[in-house]
Amino acid sequence: MRHKIMAICDTEEGYAFRMAEYILEKVKLPYTLHLFTAVEELEKFAGREEIEILLIAENAWKLIREEFVKSQVAQMFILQESEQAQQEEACCISKYQSPEKVVQKMLDVIADGGGWKEYPEAVDTAVKTIGIYSPVKRCLQTSFALTLGQLLAKEHRTLYLNFEMYSGLGELLRRDYQTDMLDVMYYFQSAREKLALRLPTIIQNAGGLDYIPPMQYALGIKEVPGEQWLALCRDIAAIGEYEYMILDLDDGIDGLFDLLKSCQKIYTITRDDPFAMAKLRQYEQMLQTGELEEITEKTVKCRFPVFQQLPDSLDMMTHGELAGYVKSIIKEDIYG
């Protein structure tokens, strides 16, 4: 994917650097970013390179030549400092709000327009996909998946995707989500070429681990065919340049076994009680009958010891007994 150029220009150096730092560290945009604190330097650069997006403060915009705006910049956003900054040729965004809100407004305008027309092809990437699935319920599956993801995220770009019908993740993390996995699938289905612009404002982070908020409308998950989940996961991995992708899987999703087959490693958690063992045996027999031995061969069964205490917060899963157990799995099974 060819990255286009985005430029930030603000004579107020502190603000310009903070905005650039936020975009580089917190948001994965399909643009190469250039920062300017002098209008003259911006104009010189634009004489050599085509600027797709310009985010410019009102103080710098007043100094810029009108012919430069019309000929050298495809789309301009003015960081408004006063009521007089309104322009027909540009979208005005209030400067005095968080960088997150500024970027979200900017990307919403770009994605709703006709600007971005390129996206990564849905081909195999270097991402290592790890599936977490068990027919046994209340077995710490999500706790295990989050701990694994947060530990891997310390050294690798890692994304966590939760496919549970009722994850409760928003309440447990005390967060309200405006968008979720079904919105991402909608963007993928309706305007796939703009997915790279939508993702940065949807992806959240917990304990250093990137994740897309799970579906809030449980019935919607049954309407998406499995092959589309596979294609979406490939595109997300390519756009985000992720090294690891953790799939926290549930029976309610169509294409469960296709997703499991796409994983390089699968972890299935079980327990010693008779009900858990019976469910696991039935699941394994079904894999054998359905000629899904490929899933069996990739599966590592985990039977946890009794943990005396689990972390109080889901964004702090790298501490405690469970984290110690998962660290040994990463060292011996994933890295080993």
What does this 3D model show about the protein?
The chain is α/β, with parallel strands linked by helices. 42% of the residues lie in helices and 19% in strands. The protein has two domains: 4-112, Rossmann fold; 128-334, P-loop containing nucleotide triphosphate hydrolases (Rossmann fold). It has helices spanning 13-26, 39-48, 58-61, 66-72, 99-112, 141-153, 169-172, 181-190, 195-202, 226-240, 256-262, 274-289, 293-298, 321-334; strands at 4-9, 31-36, 51-57, 73-80, 91-94, 128-132, 158-162, 204-206, 209-212, 244-248, 265-270, 299-303. The strands form two sheets. Strands 8-9-7-10-6-11-12 form a seven-stranded mixed β-sheet, with helices on both faces. A five-stranded parallel β-sheet has the order 2-1-3-4-5, with helices on both faces. Helix 5 (99-112) runs antiparallel to helix 9 (195-202), helix 6 crosses helix 14 and helix 10 (226-240) packs parallel to helix 11. The longest helix has 16 residues, at 274-289. Residues 115-123 have low confidence and may be disordered.
Topology:
Blueprint (H helix, E strand, L loop, with lengths): L3 E6 L3 H14 L4 E6 L2 H10 L2 E7 H4 L4 H7 E8 L10 E4 L4 H14 L15 E5 L8 H13 L4 E5 L6 H4 L8 H10 L4 H8 L1 E3 L2 E4 L13 H15 L3 E5 L7 H7 L2 E6 L3 H16 L3 H6 E5 L17 H14 L2
Helix pairs in contact: 5-9, 6-14, 10-11
